[in-house]
Amino acid sequence: MHHLHNYLSASQRAAIAAGVLMLAACAPAEQTSNTGYVAEQTTFINTFRPYCGQAFAATIVEDNQPSPAWDKPLVVHIRDCEENTIRMPLHVGDDRSRTWVLTQHPGYIDFQHYHLHEDGSADDVSPYGGQTLAAGSATMQAFPVDEASQALFIENGLDVSVTNTWTISFVDDKTMSYKLSRPGRIFEVHVDLSTPVDIPPPAWGYQQ
Length: 208
Prior knowledge:
Layout: H1 10-25, H2 39-46, E1 54-63, E2 74-78, E3 80-81, E4 85-92, E5 95-105, E6 108-115, E7 128-131, E8 140-144, H3 147-155, E9 165-172, E10 175-182, E11 185-197
């Protein structure tokens, strides 16, 4: 779906860059390429590439506020791997509304959740996510909620989500973890990369 975009404003990019610089002042120097990309983050993005085009079953491993809406088969389709962008639709039963999008920029990775309706139109709360504020590691990156998402949550009565942090990690060589955390809330999904499953129908908003 080539119309998905990163909606960061110039001021948000500046704030992210400032945060990275502040962290760099009190942490070991990050290794960067001459393009400004952080080495650990490049390795992290490249870890997805062997799985591109494949789909995998997923399981909720922790959820302290369970909902029947999630009591369905989960499939993560690592659909698109472009030079600096990974797109992964998450299918929850027949609900094909969700796509996770990771985009590497010089100095940070952006992680957004796109929620689309069956006709391809965007949900009122879409996209939302955050950006890395530290180098992370080759196997784990954390994404504190960004200001644009906080404003979107407040606008839609989801104030509880303004302290969200999302973490994506490879807990071993065959398991990817997606984790949402905030005070009083933990939700974690493990994706089994050991055995591909049948490719699901296109996520909503995709043509094929």
